[in-house]
Every structure is written in structure tokens, then in C-alpha cells.
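seq/struct pair 1
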Amino acid sequence: MKNQQLKLPNGSNKLLLHSCCAPCSGSIMEQLCNANIDYTVFFYNPNIHPKREYELRKNENIAFAQKHGVPFIDADYDSDEWFARAKGLEFEPERGKRCTMCFDMRLERTALFAHENGFAVFATSLGISRWKDLNQVNTCGKNAAAHYPDLIFWDNNWRKGGGSQRMIEISKAEEFYQQEYCGCIYSLRDSNEYRRQKGLETIKIGTKFYGRSAEK
């Protein structure tokens, strides 16, 4: 990937990267390392359910950050607050109002940490997935940054320049855990309902990994 020209906006020298999981952030982290950008990973994802799934995603992200010598901030799980905010949105479709609420919550918390800890720029790995609405993610990021006059949300399109493909390549090479739903209890419910309608097995947490055969 050609990322030597990757530079933070406004001449900033460090970045706070909100990460949703190791597979989504892997190629972004590689790009940032290759561009010699000083960054810290911030893991705040209270939407992920159940707790076992949350721990799988978080611990894998911690291990990958440690492997590359990148600082990692393990934020609170805070799932009770997430469920309180999701009340009334339980049957919203993917990319609907519930997702906006979820992005808002996570990126507002990231923006607060950035503001309180000397980061002038923050970004997120959420938009690299083709399952996400990039405009929705970026709007939430910009709204979160707007609370602080000294803060910028970096809306770099991480999918471009082979970013999405590199995400898969790294995931396979690292044998990352391959989550099969977005993360929340409602996406798990809807994903399993779709599978049942298609006559497929429901999701089994902690069993599927990139780059591994079914027998491995």
C-alpha cells in the first residue's frame, strides 16, 4: 500500500485512534506505522454483546497493539449506559437510528478522552468495513469533535488505496478472530434470524478465525 504521504491534518503530530476490533484496525495501524505517525489505540465499545464476545475482540486488539509497540487505552465497558440509550431503538435496521446512537456514544467518549489528554486529532476504524455507512460514521465523528474547539475528527477514507483488501490480508496472516455480526445484541438477534430463515446454523461465538480451515 502507498501510504508514505499519509499525514495528520493541521500539522498535528499525534493521533487517538478509536478501534472497534483488531481486523478493522489492522490495516489502519499498519498505515499509521508506515507513515511514522505517533498514535494511541482507544478501545471503547460498550455495544459489544455478550461479554465473552467483547473480551475476545478487546484482547485480540491489545495483543496486536503490543506486538507493534503501540499504546493501548482500555476504556470502560459501560454496557448499562449503552442499553439505556438503545431503549426504543431495539428494532431499528442496520445503519438506522440505533447505529447512529451507537457511533455517537463511542465517538463522543473518544473525543472527550482526546480533549482531556492532549490529542488534537482522533479517528476511528469503524468506517473501513463495507457493512458500515461511511457518511454516517463520519458525521458522528465530526459531531463529536464539534464539542471541543481544539479537536479535529480525521475522516480519512481508510478503504481507499487497497485498505479494505489489506484488512483481510492482515486478518488472515494474524488469524484474527472473525466476528460474524456487528456486535450488539440486536445485530446478533437479526443475524441469527436471517440464518434460521436460510436454514443455516446460528452464530457460535469464539469459533471462527480468519485464515484457518474448519479442521484447524
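seq/struct pair 2
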Amino acid sequence: MTTFKKVNYLQILFILSVTVLISAFIIEYGFGFQPCNLCLIERIPYGLAIIILIINYFFKSNQIFHSVLLILVFSFSIIISIYHLGIEEGIIEESAVCATNNLDLLTKEDILKSLEVMRVSCKDVAFKIFGLSLTTYNIFISVLMFLLSTKVYLVKNDFKK
């Protein structure tokens, strides 16, 4: 059985992060499903992970720091995804995060313009795969990414080929 090196785990994290973001953009722009505010927030950890992994590739002296950052990023991802699932299931009330972006409207024209923009509620599930919302899949992926990030932190081998 082959054992993965730290670099292999980092490559998997990078590929999964890119795949998740590309999938989200395809669902939004290709299929036309408008994401809610929490769905947009759930993308942030994957973008941060890509940035951290690219920085880690060039600056290998801070490997422990970068792996701890990845663990924290995916901890946040798990928390926000569970919170979103709680809203979808009606366990948690929608918060200001799910509210409209235009809370400081002053003129009648601004109000009318904001009504033209379709807002998606965080509790409405617009897209499901095999009966599960994308938020549910995001929980699974975030837990996997958290575990991989933890493995990166725990693996003792170095990045040399």
C-alpha cells in the first residue's frame, strides 16, 4: 500500500478546492441557479484554501502555520455549512446574513431598483443532487478537507521529492 506524502495531501486539497469553486460557478452561471448569501459565504474557505496552498508552495518554511490556517479555514466552513443547513431545515431562524444586501436605501428609485433584483432566501433550496442540498454536500466536503488539513499537519515527512 502506498503512503501519501504531505505534498500529495496538499495537491488533493488544491484540486478539491478548485473543483468545488468551478462546480459552484457552473451551477450558478451555467445552469442559472441564483445562490443565497450563505451559499456565497460558503465559497470563501475554498478560495482562501487555494491562496494558502499557493503561498505554501512558494514559501515552504511556514508549513506548520499554513496547515494550521487550513484547519481553521475548514473549521469555519463546517460551522457555516451546518448553520446554513439548520436554516434550510427550519431549525434556525434566518439572520441578517440572509437578508437583502440593500438595507440602507434612501430614495424611491433605489427601492424600486432593489426590487428588480431577485433575492434568494437562505431557507429555500434551489438545487439538489440525489435529494440532498448543496449545503449538505458542502458539509461532507468541508469535513473531508478538515481531515486532510489535519493530516497535513500531522504527517512528519517533508516536501522533498
